Amino acid sequence: MAFRLTPHERGFYPLFTRAAENIVRAADDLAALVAADPPDRPELAKRVKDAENAGDELTHEILVKLNSTFVTPFDREDIYRLTSSLDDVLDAIEEAADRIVLYRLGALPGGVARQVEVLRRAAAATAEAMPHLASMSQLREYWVHVNALEDEGDAVYRALIAELLSPPDDVPPAGLLTILKTKEVVEVLEEAADAFETVANTVESIVVKES
Amino acid sequence: MAFRLTPHERGFYPLFTRAAENIVRAADDLAALVAADPPDRPELAKRVKDAENAGDELTHEILVKLNSTFVTPFDREDIYRLTSSLDDVLDAIEEAADRIVLYRLGALPGGVARQVEVLRRAAAATAEAMPHLASMSQLREYWVHVNALEDEGDAVYRALIAELLSPPDDVPPAGLLTILKTKEVVEVLEEAADAFETVANTVESIVVKES
Amino acid sequence: MAFRLTPHERGFYPLFTRAAENIVRAADDLAALVAADPPDRPELAKRVKDAENAGDELTHEILVKLNSTFVTPFDREDIYRLTSSLDDVLDAIEEAADRIVLYRLGALPGGVARQVEVLRRAAAATAEAMPHLASMSQLREYWVHVNALEDEGDAVYRALIAELLSPPDDVPPAGLLTILKTKEVVEVLEEAADAFETVANTVESIVVKES
């Protein structure tokens, strides 16, 4: 019978999986919000905010466990970084939902829905990968996939920015303000895509260390 | 007689207290600057800048002590995080003062003074809490208080942004520019409130670890 | 014969030097881009992007080495911070190049070329300093120099922002948009200068620890 001299605390893996599944829900709600009529958006933004609060509680739970666990499955600093990068993803998704409502934006350019679609796919890939942390298997496909999604998101983002920032010469100041508000939403969605890549890079560095 | 086998280096606590008291002074000067006539502001911004320089020296002193101390009162990484989050508060306060002067803003919307008032109360709570790090007592009230202040600051911030970004349809481009400059100041004040919350969360995680 | 009980892995120093030399090349290409006619800029932005990719590979190489090395020449966390701050410099330089092209900016204000000139000098100073990490000598001059350059960059930055944000009252909305795009480039160049200072401060804290 195989056994380990330093039995690892395995309770971290389900928490990472729950954190990622929580992000899946937030990304779904954000997609619904982007497609919704403006009067229906505040309710959906509240759901994204609830997901962010649930994420904060998971972060707290992971950090408490980290502080009370003597032998962790991988470096404490890596657990800290993974937790904090998952938190960054959720913060960016929540900020995007919040800005769309706070800025009272109307219909959004089509590229915004495409950005959110990329986020949903990155969220699904992340939630699928987290349970594999226990066995350190099948994670290479995950980070290659997330890096490809980040490239795709980047192309959508760049096309959107180029389109937004080339208004007709006679755009009125109020139209310019709408452009600037929309640009902020587009930027924060791009930050969310980058944050998914940081999660994947953190997982990669954990796997490299263990191999 | 009680004694400790690993006598803790207690010189860190007074440094954290001094860092927080320095933030109190910077927040007071920022409040004066916001209330002042534009010609009187550069002098007050200089005082805030002086406080930021004093804060940088304290940060340096803490890090030098950290590097020369074998047994620290709590995790080195926690000392690093607490120092760096106190530094972030001061940086945001200084940036707000600086932007108001650099952007040559005139009278500011009333909400800005309310944001700064929240910062002053968070600064006072932080300065009062730091000496309790030595005994790890009475810190729960502090972080509950700072979290409540952050919620209050957030409400002020959101109302301000909604007001700023709904100008009349015939706003001239120069008026739009003033709106955008003011929005930047409002954002950085919100960052300062968030940074106070990060300080409180860092203290919370230190207490959780020690308990 | 002198020998060390814990032979340090010295392979880190050449990697830091290569990372800094890569930044020198990126800063040179950015200077060429700023001076170039707009149609010639995308080719130069691609070169800066290539440098950023090369930098990412160096970062990866350093982190892999860090994870496979038992005894490092200085604290693992310091190696991590130095690597990550060099990466931040390159990211900011790449972002500036990218924005100038993505935003289809025309001729840039003279201050932008002055900002980039400061970056080139900071890059040269950094590349010259990295090989001295092995002996921990002559590093004080380096960080004093980089801090002076950061002050110089800050003065250029502030004059530029004051100039940009004081357009004539009858500026049209399209002119305002150009101002805001240019301001973003100017801000990210200032971030690059700050990031060089963070590299220097990290080196300083390593030297303080070792002395």
UniProtKB/TrEMBL annotation, chains A, B, C:
It comes from the Bacteria. It holds the Pfam family PhoU_div. InterPro entries: PhoU-like_sf, Put_Phosphate_transp_reg, UPF0111_domain. Signal peptide: none annotated. Belongs to the UPF0111 family. This is DUF47 family protein.
